[in-house]
Amino acid sequence: MFLSDKKIEELELKANDIRKSIIEMLLEAGSGHTAGPLGMADIFTLFYFHILKHDVNNPAWEERDRLVLSNGHICPVLYATMAYAGYFPIEELKTLRKFGTRLQGHPHREYLSYVETSSGPLGLGLSQAVGMALADRISKKDTERFIYCFMSDGEHDEGNTWEAIMFAGKNKLRNLIAIVDRNNIQIDGFTEDIMPLEPLPDKWRAFNWHVIEVGGHDFMALNEAISEAQAIYEKPTVIIAHTIPGKGVKEFERDYKWHGKPPNKEEAKIALDELRTLGGKIKSEHQ
Amino acid sequence: MLNPQLKLNAKIFNQDSEQAPIRKGFGQGLLLAGEQDPNVVALCADLTESTQMIFFKERFPERFVEVGVAEQNLVTIASGMAAMGKIPFCSSYAMFSPGRNWEQIRTTIAYNDRPVKIVGSHAGVSVGADGGTHQALEDIALMRVMPNMDVLSPCDSIEARKATLAIVKTGKPAYLRLAREKTPIITTEETPFTLGKAEIYWIPDVGLAQVGIIVTGGLMYRALLAAKELEAESPVGIKTKVMNLSSIKPIDVEAIVALARECRAIVTVEEHQIIGGMGSAVAEVLAQNFPVPMEFVGIKDKFGQSGTPDELIEHYGMGKNSIKEAVQKVLSRKI
Fold first, then answer.
1. Which residues of B touch A139 (CB under 8 A)?
2. What is the pLDDT of residue A282?
3. CATH entry, B196-332, from 3.90.1300.10, 3.40.50.920, 3.40.50.10300, 3.10.450.50
4. CB-based contacts of A283, cutoff 8 Å, min separation 6
5. Is A103 left (phi over 0), alpha (psi -120 to 50) or beta?
6. Whole-model pTM?
7. Burial track A174-199 (b if 16+ CB lie within 10 A, e otherwise)
8. How far apart are CA B270 and CA B289, in angstroms?
9. Tens of pLDDT along A88-105?
10. Using a CB-CB distance cutoff of 8 angstroms, which residues of chain A are in contact with residue B72?
11. Residues in chain B within 8 Å Cβ distance of A123
C-alpha cells in the first residue's frame, strides 16, 4: 500500500507517543519488559495505522486480518498501539499488570478479547497463525485476508517454532506472513552467545519460505517488504526485521539488561526527556 | 444384574460376546461428526490408522491435516484453526498428546477456551507389548487439572462414538481417552449417554447395595464380572452397584453422592495412576459432600512394561480378583 512522506512523518510521531506511553506504563507497573516493546514500536505503528485491515468500532469483524503476537512479553507495545488506535482509553494503559486489569502481564483473551490469542510462553504463536492460515485455505478465504505473526528471535530456540516453520513451508501458506523481531537479545544475553541463530535467513529459506530482510525502523522499507510478502503466491513469507532493542532511548539501546526490567523513576525521566525531543530532532518546549 | 433400564448388552457374559477396540468407536464417531458438521476438521501426528482417523481422512481429505511427528505443532495448529471457526479433533497416542504437549494445550487451547478436542489413544497398560514408554497412565490427571477442559473416558466402542459426537457440540475444549485393544461391548445403541452424567450399570437383584464400584474406561467389563461373582458368593453374597463414570469432568456430583449415601463404601476402578486419577476426583467429591471409606483400584505409582494386556492388568492389580478384594476390604472398613 502506498506510503507518502507525510504519512511517514505522522507514523514517526505516533510511534514516539507510543514509546512514551510504554515508558510511563512500565514505570507505573514496576515490572515488565522494556527493550522489546521500544524496538517494535515502529512496526506496530505501521501495522495498526497503515497495514492491517481492522475496524476499531467492530473489533470482532469477521473479515479483519489477524495479527498473532507470539512473544507476549512485549505486550506493552501492543496495548499502547491499540490504545492509540482507539480500542480503549489511553488512560487505561496505567492499569498494566495490576489486579483486575484487562491489560494482563502477558495477554489473555479472556480479559482482552481484542487480542487474537493469549500468549507469553514462547514458541506457540507461529503454529497458531499457521492454523489460522490453513483454516482460511480450507474455507477458501485465503485470498481475502492475511494472517500475520509477530515473533521474537529468541523464540527460535523453541522446537515448536521450527515445527511450525516446516509445516507452513510444506503447505505453501501464501496468506501467512511472519515478522521476526531480530533484535539480537534475549534474557540471558545476546542470541548469538546463548544459542546462535545465524545464518537465520538461510534456515528459513531451507524450509521453503520466502525471506525478506529489512531494517525494522525504516517505514518505507518495511512497507515495501510487506507489499512484496503479500504478492508472493507460492510460499509463506518471513520478514526478518532488524530492530534496535530499546530503540528511541540511547541509554537503553542494544543492551540486553533492558530485556526484562522496567525503568525506575530516574531512568524513566531520562527516557521521556529523550523521547519528547525525538532524540534531539525537535527542541523541547523548555529550551 | 445389569440395570434393565439402560438397555445394556444382554449377551455380555456369554463366551462369544462381541468385542471391539474403544478407539474404533471414535473413528466411526468422527466420520459421523464430519458428515453432520462441515466445520469439523481432523489433525493427526503420523498415526492416522492406529488412532482410527483413517475413515475421516478417506471421506474428507480436504478437512484432514497431517502434521507429522510433532505433537506440539498438532495442538497449536488446531488452536489456530479453532480461532477461525473450525472444530478440530487432534489425535495421537495419549503418551504424546497430552503427554508431550501439555503446556501448549494449556496456553493455546484451555486458556483461550477454544473448542479443540484432544484425543489420546492407546491409554493404559493394555497397550501391551510396546512397553512403558507408550502406556499413558497419567493423562487423566494431566487433563482434569486444567480449567475449561472436559475429560471423557468411555467404557466401550459404542460409548466412544457417542462421546465423540457429544463433544463436537460443547463449544469448549475436551479430552477423549481411548484404549487400543479389543474390549467387550457393554452398551447398546439404546443405552443413554449424556456428557456429565454417570449411570449405574449393575444393581443388586434385590435390596440395597453394600458397596458402590465406580469405573471409568475399559475396565468396566472386569468390574461387572467382579460384581456378578461377588453377588453369587456363598453363603452370603456381596451386593454392589457398578457406576460408569465416563465423564470424569464435568463430574456427576449428585450421582456419586447418592451412591455413597446408599452404599457407605466406594471402590474406584481405572487403568491409570491412583494419584490424580478418576478415583482422586471421586475422593474430592466425597470428602466435601459425604465422606465414606474408599479403596482405589489402579496403578500404584509405577510405570508399565511389555506383556499382554491381560498379564499387565493382572500384574498391576487391576483385574477382576483385585476388584473383588478391594470390595471386600472396603466392606470390612465400613463404619
1. 84-85
2. 67
3. 3.40.50.920
4. A277
5. beta
6. 0.96
7. bbbbbbbbbbbbbeeeebeeeeebee
8. 22
9. 999 999 999 999 999 999
10. 123, 127, 159-160, 163
11. 72
Q: Which amino acid is at A213?
A: E
- Give the separation between CA B319 and CA A287, rounded to whole angstroms: 86
pLDDT tens per residue across span B53-87: 999 999 999 999 999 999 999 999 999 999 999 99
Backbone angles phi, psi at A277, to 5 degrees: -100, 10
Percent of chain B with pLDDT over 90: 97
CA atoms of B75 and B79, how far apart (whole Å): 6
**Contact flag B73-A120 (C-beta cutoff 8 Å):** no
CB spacing of A120 vs B107 below 8 angstroms: yes
| Nearest CB to A124 within list B63, B86, B104 | B104
Rounded-to-integer distance, Cα A9 and Cα A203, Å: 35
According to the model, what pLDDT value does residue A287 have?
46
Determine the Cα–Cα distance for residues A179 and A192; give it in Å rounded to an integer.
19
- pLDDT on residue A6: 97
In A, which residues are within 8 Å of B112 by CB distance? 109-110, 117-118
Q: With an 8 Å Cβ cutoff, are A134 and B77 in contact?
A: yes
**Residue B152, beta-bridge partner list:** B176, B247
The stretches in chain B having pLDDT less than 70 are none
Domains of chain A: 5-276 (3.40.50.970)
Q: 3-class secondary structure for A20-51?
A: HHHHHHHHHHCCCCCHHHHHHHHHHHHHHHHH
Taking only the tens place, the pLDDT of each residue in A228-287 is: 999 999 999 999 999 999 999 999 999 999 999 999 999 999 999 999 987 677 665 554
Contact B57/A at CB under 8 A: no
Q: Does A164 touch chain B (CB under 8 A)?
A: yes
The alpha carbon of residue B51 is apart from the nearest alpha carbon of chain A, in Å, by 21
User: CA neighbours within 13 Å on the CB side: how many for B177?
Assistant: 36
Domain ranges for chain B, please list them: 20-184, 196-332
Instruction: Specify the CATH architecture of the domain B20-184.
Output: 3-Layer(aba) Sandwich (3.40)
Q: Phi, psi (5° rounding) for residue B66? A: -95, 120
- Whether B39 contacts chain A with CB within 8 A: no
Residue B249 cell numbers, joined:
469432568
Q: What's residue B335's pLDDT?
A: 77
Contact: A135, B81; criterion CB under 8 Å: yes
pLDDT (mean) for A6-31: 97
CA dihedral A102, A103, A105, A108 (to 10 degrees): 60
**Residue A13's pLDDT is what?**
96
CA-based nearest distance B67→chain A, Å: 7
Is residue A42 within 8 A of residue A219, CB to CB? The reply is: yes
Residue B45: its pLDDT value, please?
Answer: 96
Please name the residue that has the C-alpha cell 490408522: B49
